[in-house]
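Q: Entry one of two.
A:
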Amino acid sequence: MGKILSKSDSSELHNDTVEDSTIQRRGKYTFGRLVVYEGESVSIFDSNGTQTAINGPCAIRPYFSKVEFLRRIACDQQSYLIITFLSGKIEHRRGPACLFIDPTIHSNIRVHNALLLEANEVLVVYAEETSALGIKGNKNVIRRLVKGPEIFIPQSNEWLHSFSWHGTVIPGKSKGSITGSPNDTKTAHAVEFSKLRVLPDQMYYTVRDLRTSDDALLNLHIMIFFELVDIEKMLDATNDPISDIVNAANADVMTFGASHTYETLLSESRGLSENSAYPLLVSRMETIGYKLNKVVYRGYQTSSALQAMQETAISSRTKLRLEADTQRQEQTNMANLLVSREAQAKHKFAQELNEVEHKIRLQKITTDQALQAQAAQNAVELTHAREMNNERKDFLKSLADMKVDLTQYLVAEVATKPTSHVLIENRGGNTNNKAPSLHIH
């Protein structure tokens, strides 16, 4: 008598995302009743080998048949199914989707995650197309760019461009880094990816074993800022742009170092932060579709002996420069003091000169005023004398008119005037027996 099969527990299978599957239930049935539950599918092979697919829910009696429950594969909206048929055909079905593996049709069904692209990411996709004439075997391969943001699911005739560039190997991690870290080493095939970033980026780089014109050996550190501006040109011109960038930068820095001595290289190192110092780098980046934004000089590293000599020389130069600056400052202060004293002397001389000139002007004004006053007094006296003389003249004329002898009158007038005056003074009595004073005029 046949046996009745019931629904068994289900489990999850994982490929890239979760697969929903049903445990296969196989067996040969002569008699009996088989229940196929909802969400299940079964293949029944009769005694002639003919296959019949039945989807649940249902109940059947598979007489003299072989029964095989089919495994169910499901994917969500961010994944897709890769269906491989027995004929060799491959089909990609976008999720969400659910499909049972039919052994008479399918060879394999797998679940793959879709590629989630951000706004600054680009995929390079190749596809094989049949020619317009439809001639079998005459196919063309085309290339297209898929720009984010997007959930990308490739078609069965499409494949992605895989990039393998120079970069920095990070210990303990499976992925490398293009940016890297200070004093790192760029290694071939360190960075492998399919999503191409189109944002401005930067990269640490160390030019090792740089030899100057005086045979000094050192490592020079720079940082390169760049941007991918033409993806098509990059794809056509190079398969590793980072290798091209570091090689061109290395050549430019080597050329710069060979044209300078150790001292002049350090004194003119600011020129390494100018784009004009990297002609090969600028030219090569334009050729491969990149743009050089900026190069920053980050310093250098040399042997301990040379570094010790350099530090000693720097210390000596700094000490001499400080002493020279001190002397120069003292001389400047002394010169300023002399200039200040000279200015003060000039100011004092000018002030004294102004005072003397002021006194002279005041004296001149006083003298002029005195002379003017004396001249005015003289003029008054002269006028008065003239008037007196005129009056006397008129008087004498009147006497002459009265028949008076003027000669006798004048003689008599002169004779009546005393010729001298005698003054005897006795001040305060004669208590001290002092003789009286005698004055004769």
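Q: Entry two of two.
A:
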Amino acid sequence: MKCALLLVVLSLAIPCQAQKPNIEDHFTKGTLNGRFWNSLPEDSRLWFILGYCEGTSQFWLACPTEVENGELVKGIDRFYQEPENLRLPVITAMAVFTQKVRGASPTLIESLMKAARDFADKPGETHLFPRANEPAK
């Protein structure tokens, strides 16, 4: 009886283990991407934005003040509806949406997208934006 129960438990656990997502798919060169974003439940997306904004409030890359956090979440959701954007960092989705809200030109939006694609495609790049103490390349 114990053996049969153990077999039932194991047979239920194995499919659960097989469905575990590959965490490496959630990063592009160490930066969280759209696959990560899409894996989050709706309320976790808002908490991510709140944590990001709180964490960056003292740095140059602060969150936009022009939109509510819920609107930012919806904008990022729309960005990642395009499959080709899934590998791009979440910070790119935030920047593109913010610039669109600010009325940026299509040329500026495309330059942000190109920089993000180049980052994702170029071997050896580890940061989308240069760090404050690193010279720009």
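A: Comment on entry two: The chain has one domain: 25-121. Residues 32 and 91 are 8 Å apart (CA to CA).
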